[in-house]
Amino acid sequence: MKTIIGALLAFVSILFRSRLTLQLEIVALRHQLSVYQRTTPRPRINPGDRIFWSWFSRRWSSWRGALVFVQTRTVITRQRKRFRDHWAKLSKQGRPGRPLVSKEIRTLIRKMSEANVGWGSPRIVGELQKLGIDVAKSTVEKYRVRSKKPPSRMIGITRIRSLIVAG
Predict the structure, then answer these.
(1) Which residues contact 52 (CB under 8 A, 6 or more apart)?
(2) Residue 101 in contact with residue 124, Cβ under 8 Å?
(3) Which residues of 12-48 are buried (b: 16+ CB within 10 A; e: fewer)?
(4) What are the extents of the domains in the chain?
(5) Residue 78 needs a FRET pair 20 to 30 A away by CA distance; which of 38, 71, 89, 113 works?
(6) Would you say the pTM of this structure is higher than 0.85?
(7) Rounded CA gap, 89 and 104, in Å?
(8) Taking Cα atoms as reference points, which of 67, 62, 26, 25 lies closest to residue 50?
């Protein structure tokens, strides 16, 4: 008796629904029926079914009422996981940090710093920009050649100190 009353109520509710809503519900129910038919006693859901339901849930607001073989919480959890995985994959593409400087530019920085000992990193950056090469000061500092002896001013201070100590 309950099933007959349930069927009659469902029929009456169908009279007040739009055609699009009915078509979407038919698609949802047919998909679930195909899952039941292709699997044995317990329905097995493959990745295609998961994608279908995540797509379908975004297109149709009443999808929860038509879903029978999976809990709605499962579909929402899978959508959130796909969203996280998508952005994690996008963020892992490429290498972190600045792009590598080509070998030619590195050798040019080394040659400029060896040839012009008095030039600091800002001056080398400026000269490279005149050539159309855009590099950061920290990049120049990383690749320039440093002299092994201290600058001449430091040598002078060291000599003065040695004279004071000796005298």
Answers:
(1) 31
(2) no
(3) eeeeeeeeeeeebbeebeebbeebeeeeeeeeeeeee
(4) 2-92, 103-166
(5) 38
(6) no
(7) 33
(8) 67
